[in-house]
Amino acid sequence: MKTLVCIKYVPDTSEAEVKLNPDGLTVDDSRFSFDINDADNYAVEESVLIKEAQGGEVTVLSIGPKKSEVMIRMAMAKGCDKAVRIEDDRVAAHDPLMVAKVLAGGIKGQEFDLVLTGCMANDDWHMATGVALAEELGVNHASMVNKVELLDGKVKVNRELEGGLMEVVELELPAVLTIQTGINEPRYAPIRGIRQAQKKELNVVNLDDLGMDPGSVSADASQVVLEKLYIPEVESTAEFIEGEPEEKAEKLASILQKGGLV
Amino acid sequence: MGNVLVLAEHRQGALRDVSFEMLAVAPKIAEGMGGETAVLLLGSGLDDMAKKMTEYGVKVMVVDDPAFENFNAEKYQIALSAIVDELNPAVLMTGHTAQGVDFMPALAVEKKMPLVSDVVGLDYEDGTLKATRTLYSGKVNAVVAFKPADTCLVTFREGAVEAPETSAAGEVEKLDSPLKEDVTYRKFVEYVEAEVGDVDITQSDILVAIGRGLKEDKNLPEIEALAEAIKADLAGSRAATDAGWIPHDRQVGTSGKTVKPKLYIALGVSGAFQHLAGMKGAKTIVAINKDPEAPIFSVADYAIVDDMFKVLPKLTEKLKELK
Ligand SMILES: Cc1cc2nc3c(=O)[nH]c(=O)nc-3n(C[C@H](O)[C@H](O)[C@H](O)COP(=O)(O)OP(=O)(O)OC[C@H]3O[C@@H](n4cnc5c(N)ncnc54)[C@H](O)[C@@H]3O)c2cc1C
Ligand SMILES: Nc1ncnc2c1ncn2[C@@H]1O[C@H](COP(=O)(O)O)[C@@H](O)[C@H]1O
């Protein structure tokens, strides 16, 4: 079983204020810590589980900066075998269709049975790259997958629908699956794996190396223009309870009690 | 002429809310473009659903073919590719749902058409179609403009707008099924219902919901103590269920349960829209979060910006005392 897993290095903006860069088109992420995208972490685990069960190898594929190599090494420490990092600032990164084309360029020419992506990137929230990638590669796909069962020449997956309902579908291989969080329990990288990962093959390439025409994935080629970013106002009608932590607790307790809420 | 084609979504015999909600947006765009709005339904035995959609004063085009009884991305892509060629809509929109995200990006690549996904607002200004979408869990908004294209593809977020009032009755038009032969690469097998747990949180009066802010399961007893003091059931965000802190059937949100308790206390939950969609109907919402920008505060009635672990012990103690 040959598997490719696409992973993205994303900033963790969940606990802090987000500010924009003066260009109005990018987020100032200099203060944030970066890590593997949530869903991609589950995709890595799934690819390693598949390798452990079926044999074969796993290749990591990521478009991102040099500093993302810590993430790539971590995926290799968990059991992925080799990696390709694509870095090229000519790619229209705001358009998932362009990103998918570049990922396809990184895969073309390689044999594979499965390509796993995350179902959504925590920064841009497109939920589009994996399914677009399948079309670029001309193979089957299923999105929002939270169970994978390999059959002979086929894969049976559970797709997560709204409200907890699941849809079971069967696909012929090769296929692209976009993985949903919660599908497995991502492991911690073993110390031995971390050491071994340093010696695994990590190729860094750009569009020219991939034999791709930069004009086919640039902002000019994209059919959408990112006009602006802005910070939406959090419109809140909440009563903000002030004071020291313990005072806040006391005030809240009495509000709840007086209001007959508890 | 710029017509807007809205692909309605249905599952297990019922139309999904997003199908109606899109009709709050599509007619304005169509009007700006000098065209009309039509709804497209793919499925089998669609009479009732078609009638329901006509109540919004739009034309409803129906492809009635048993092959479409259950959603199949491959069949949908083949059908829509042919229908887009035939009808040439300026915009094709459908829900940003488990269904929409499963075929629209592939259709966009196949037809070399632009796609903007997870759209929460659409405008047509000075000849340009512009979509508003959210990034970074709702902390940043983006405006994305479509370059001129034969058909612009949009997946629209469920719950982003309210469905309009019904108006005059529109007409129904039958289309021939564009599916000429059966597809074989992908097969629908079955639906599997969500597992049922010991507590049905949709019936709870009070819910204490935890999020990733819990950090570790060794912090759970503090939450359980609070819940016990006020006879609440535990619920949580997807991050909390993924981490295994609480069972899956306690997940609140689009892919979990929709709850409407009297009191909902959210602890360390950021308030991503997928979560808000499941709990904003609660009567009273309390949120404790150390990030003043957390979107959960947009739906809260009472808010505390602080480290929850500094607030919780006293809160539990006081609530026990006041009983
Ligand atoms: C298709 C799809 C379906 C989804 N369905 C759902 C769903 O049904 N339900 C759902 O919840 N999510 C769902 N999600 C996930 C959703 O997008 C968010 O990732 C998730 O809700 C985040 O959970 P969280 O708020 O617990 O974590 P985070 O977003 O990481 O937020 C953690 C919060 O805790 C706060 N915090 C940290 N430490 C403390 C502390 N000591 N004291 C106080 N506050 C603290 C932080 O400031 C932060 O706001 C879905 C996603 C996808 C792609
Ligand atoms: N720069 C990238 N490098 C590698 N994979 C990516 C990149 N961007 C997106 N992906 C993959 O596409 C998935 C969905 O992203 P999105 O469509 O942007 O929500 C992610 O979870 C990744 O698996």
- CA(first)-CA(last) distance of chain B: 67 Å
Task: Write the element-wise H/E pattern of chain B from the N-terminal end onward.
Answer: EEEHHEHEHEHEEEEEEEHEHEHEEH
Distance between the termini of chain A: 56 Å
What gross morphology of chain B would you assign?
Answer: elongated
Give the SSE string of chain A: EEEEEHEHEHEHEEEEHEEEH
Low-confidence stretches of chain B: none
Could you name the ranges of chain A where pLDDT drops below 50 across 5 or more consecutive residues? Answer: none
Shape of chain A: globular
List the helices and strands and how they pair.
The complex is a heterodimer of chains A (262) and B (323).
Chain A: E1 2-6, E2 9-11, E3 19-20, E4 27-28, E5 34-36, H1 38-54, E6 57-63, H2 69-77, E7 82-86, H3 96-107, E8 114-118, H4 129-137, E9 140-151, E10 154-160, E11 166-172, E12 175-179, H5 191-197, E13 202-205, E14 224-230, E15 239-240, H6 245-258
Parallel strand pairs in A: 1-6, 1-8, 6-7, 7-13, 8-12, 9-12
Antiparallel strand pairs in A: 2-5, 3-4, 9-10, 10-11
Helix pairs in contact in A: 2-5, 3-4
Chain B: E1 4-7, E2 10-11, E3 14-15, H1 17-21, H2 26-32, E4 37-43, H3 47-54, E5 59-64, H4 73-87, E6 91-95, H5 100-111, E7 115-125, E8 128-135, E9 140-146, E10 152-156, E11 172-174, E12 186-192, E13 206-210, H6 220-229, E14 233-236, H7 238-242, E15 263-267, H8 273-279, E16 284-289, E17 302-305, H9 308-322
The complex binds flavin-adenine dinucleotide (FAD) and adenosine monophosphate (AMP).
